[in-house]
Structures are given as C-alpha cells and as structure tokens.
C-alpha cells in the first residue's frame, strides 16, 4: 500500500513539476503600492548569453550575474511555442532572462495560476514561488497553483527563465479554477 502511494506521489510530481500536492499560497501586495502613473506597460527584462553546457536554472542565473544587459520590455507572459527569437532578445538560443515588474489583480480572492515554459522557469509573485520547472524540455506546464490575493492591486513579479535551443515558450494562465483558465492579458503587467 505504501509503495503504491509513494509511486502515485512520484508520478504526480513528474507530471506537475511545481508540486505533487495541491497547495494554496498567500501573496503579499507591493508595499507601498506604486502609482499607476509611475508604471510602464509590460515587464522589464535583462538578457545574458549562456554557455552551451547550461542545462538548468542555476547556470542561467550565473550567466545573468556575469553580464545581463537590459532588453526591450516584454508585453506580458504570452510567448507561444515558436522557433522565433527568444522573447524580445536578438537570439534564437542560449539565452537567460531576468524578468521583473508587477502583475495587477483587479480583485481580491482566490486565483488558480498555471505557467508553460521551454526551457527552465522559476517565478515568484508577491514573495511566493508560484512556478518552478527546471531543465531542458519541450513547452510544458509547470503545474497549477492556487493563490490567495488578499487585496486588489499590484504584486511584485520576479522570474528567471532560460532557453537553450530549439523552440521557446513562456506563458501564464489564470482563472477562478482549473476549468476556467485563460491567458493573462498583457494589460495586467507593469514595470
């Protein structure tokens, strides 16, 4: 019986990289809240070239520490699986990205979040890790997570992302539950 339960938990962890067991995390709003007039649309991003041997987020983070350069801001997190240039960079492969800004929730309450990425992604909102899917892989889901948003407003967003070679994707969905997920509109992101 225990072996069956352990096998089921392991299988769920492999299929849902963030967590095998459903969890709810409470996000912390930006304090103080930025004024809307002080923000620009989209998310700030810096890029660094990675050595060919990089196959995980730790290597991407090292590349960013050694020489990240500001890039054209991201419109949001809706970059479909494609063999085009990675996000707003000028390269098709071996790119690490440091992404920062805010996501605006128009209402307090419970949200279900889901992320797709190719290759690695670690993302936090409001001080809580909400996505982690490391390594080299095709565009895939990081795993759903339920978040509690205590008040409407802006929440800090921070991410490390990398794409080694082949196609690249980075997308975020939200909704009231697993059945109601939709792409987060670009209008929800600021820097």
From TrEMBL:
Domain of life: Bacteria
Residues making up the signal peptide according to the UniProt record: 1-22
Domain PA14 as annotated: residue spans: 38-188
Keywords recorded for this protein, A-Z: Signal
Protein name per UniProt: PA14 domain-containing protein
Organism: Roseobacter ponti
Origin organism lineage: Bacteria, Pseudomonadati, Pseudomonadota, Alphaproteobacteria, Rhodobacterales
């Amino acid at each position: 019986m225990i072996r069956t339960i352990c096998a089921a938990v392991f299988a769920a962890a492999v299929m849902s990289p963030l967590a095998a067991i459903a969890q709810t995390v409470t996000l912390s709003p930006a304090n103080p809240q930025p004024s809307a007039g002080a923000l620009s649309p989209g998310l700030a991003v810096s890029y660094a070239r990675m050595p060919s041997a990089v196959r995980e987020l730790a290597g991407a983070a090292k590349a960013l520490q050694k020489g990240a350069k500001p890039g054209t801001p991201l419109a949001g997190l809706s970059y479909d699986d494609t063999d085009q240039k990675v996000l707003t960079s000028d390269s098709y492969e071996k790119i690490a990205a440091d992404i920062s800004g805010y996501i605006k929730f128009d209402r307090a309450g419970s949200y279900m979040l889901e992320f797709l990425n190719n290759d690695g992604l670690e993302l936090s909102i409001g001080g809580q890790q909400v996505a982690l899917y490391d390594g080299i892989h095709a565009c895939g889901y990081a795993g759903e997570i339920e978040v509690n948003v205590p008040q409407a407003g802006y929440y800090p967003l921070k991410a490390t992302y990398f794409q080694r070679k082949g196609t690249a994707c980075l997308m975020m969905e939200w909704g009231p539950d697993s059945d109601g997920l939709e792409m987060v509109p670009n209008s929800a992101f600021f820097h």
